[in-house]
Design goal:
single chain, alpha/beta, 6-stranded parallel β-sheet
Length: 430
């Protein structure tokens, strides 16, 4: 019987949240423990017609689960009822407990999906490898694919890390910016969740940090006697990656990943692959066949005499600034979405100092930005009107960029739906 199931056997288990990960937890437990009673707790009613031996706790008191031995928490659930720490568990916590020694965990406010996907793309060409986590693949769904020699690339969100007590062998923290303040309340609590990627590491483990994080206030917490802080000499100059004592030039045909931030993440991936025995020339060859993920500075095409880019993944100021630096010929910028209370001053300061011809503001955060900008801007009601306005005002042959610097919630299901809708509006398909 798998070790994770051994831990769950004969326990009173509640699955807290029945989205993608909650359903994955149910099916994995039920496969090995067909007769063990399970309880599913969710704010909203669930269809139990195809489930066996389950009880449900539904409604506003669904988090009152003190009577259970184990509460398998889904990442997106915000705890409103305090549960004892020893009862809280999750797929990520159990996975890292049993498979952490063969796992590369990648986190950061931005860039983790692309970095994890690129690392998997390179490593899987040379040895058994799986990609799971926040990328959309619950850990339990792929346990059957993991052998002793399998390398696991695990994209870790703050929500997955928040209640973990185990860590990956290799930890990567790409960056930290204000994000998810609607969930955590303060930036400090958000950082605390991210810190779990190294908090439970041991001496033989390794944490790799982006340069700016090596010199700020959190570095004293990172460097400790309990583990090795790997200050890998990694930096980027123009198209050249400097990794330890070697330099690798990335020509324009090598990748469609734009911007210095992406080149830095490529350098980290190359360094990690080298630790697994994969040479830099082999990594560079694999990079050329890597297809970038959607909605991340994605080139939509040349339509209506304009070059359109979709950066719907951008939910913070820093990523919009990075996008503008990556696309210096941007003529029109589409901004705005849900206002989560982040500080928009860095973006307004950048735009005021580096004005572009057309700034189109929409939704709640667009209204906040309008009070901070000292350059001309246009206010529209929604994304559809923003695209139509861009078609009318942008100079022919120039770049139009959607990089909202705001979450999509309240207006779209997620950033993917926002990006899909944007592309449909451009093509007049919506």
């Amino acid at each position: 019987m798998p070790p994770i199931i051994e831990e769950l056997k004969n326990k009173r288990i509640a699955i807290l949240g029945f989205g993608k990960e909650g359903q994955s937890t149910y099916h994995y437990i039920r496969k090995y423990l067909p007769n063990q009673e399970l309880t599913i707790a969710d704010l909203h009613p669930i269809d139990t017609s195809k489930l066996t031996d389950v009880k449900t706790v539904i409604g506003e008191h669904y988090q009152e689960l003190d009577a259970y031995d184990i509460v398998m928490k889904s990442p997106g659930i915000v705890l409103t009822h305090r549960l004892p720490e020893d009862k809280l568990n999750s797929q990520t916590n159990l996975f890292l407990k049993h498979y952490g020694k063969q796992t590369i965990g990648i986190t950061g406010t931005k860039g983790k999906s692309t970095t994890a996907s690129l690392l998997y793309h390179i490593v899987s060409k040379h040895q058994p490898c799986v990609l799971l986590g926040n990328i959309g693949k619950p850990a339990f769904d792929q346990l059957e694919d993991i052998q002793a020699d399998t390398i696991v690339v695990y994209e870790l969100s703050c929500h997955q890390l928040e209640y973990t007590h185990y860590a990956p062998h290799f930890g990567v923290l790409l960056n930290l910016h204000e994000e998810h303040l609607d969930h955590y309340g303060t930036y400090e609590k958000y950082i605390h969740a991210k810190e779990n990627i190294w908090r439970y590491q041991h001496k033989q483990d390794m944490i790799i940090l982006e340069h700016s994080l090596q010199n700020d206030d959190i570095s004293s917490q990172i460097i400790s006697a309990s583990m090795e802080h790997k200050d890998a000499d990694i930096y980027v100059e123009d198209q050249t990656l400097h990794i330890e004592n070697e330099s690798i030039t990335i020509d324009e045909q090598a990748t469609t990943l734009l911007g210095k931030h992406n080149r830095y993440d490529i350098a980290i991936v190359f360094y990690l692959a080298k630790q697994l025995g994969i040479s830099y020339p082999d990594s560079l060859a694999a990079l050329k066949s890597f297809a970038p993920l959607s909605h991340r500075l994605e080139y939509v095409g040349y339509l209506h005499d304009l070059h359109w880019y979709d950066d719907s993944i951008s939910t913070i100021c820093e990523t919009t600034i990075q996008a503008l630096k990556s696309l210096p010929k941007t003529d029109t910028l589409l901004l705005g979405g849900m206002d989560r209370g982040i500080d928009y001053t860095p973006l307004s300061d950048y735009l005021n100092a580096h004005p572009i011809h057309h700034v189109i503001l929409m939704y709640d955060s667009g209204s906040v930005l309008s009070k901070l900008l000292h350059i001309p801007y246009t206010v529209v009601k929604d994304l559809a009107e923003a695209v139509e306005t861009a078609k009318q005002v942008s100079q022919k042959g120039s770049v139009v960029l959607l990089s909202p610097a705001a979450a999509s919630y309240g207006f779209f299901k997620n950033f993917e739906e926002r990006g899909d809708r944007y592309q449909k509006y451009i093509k007049n398909e919506a």
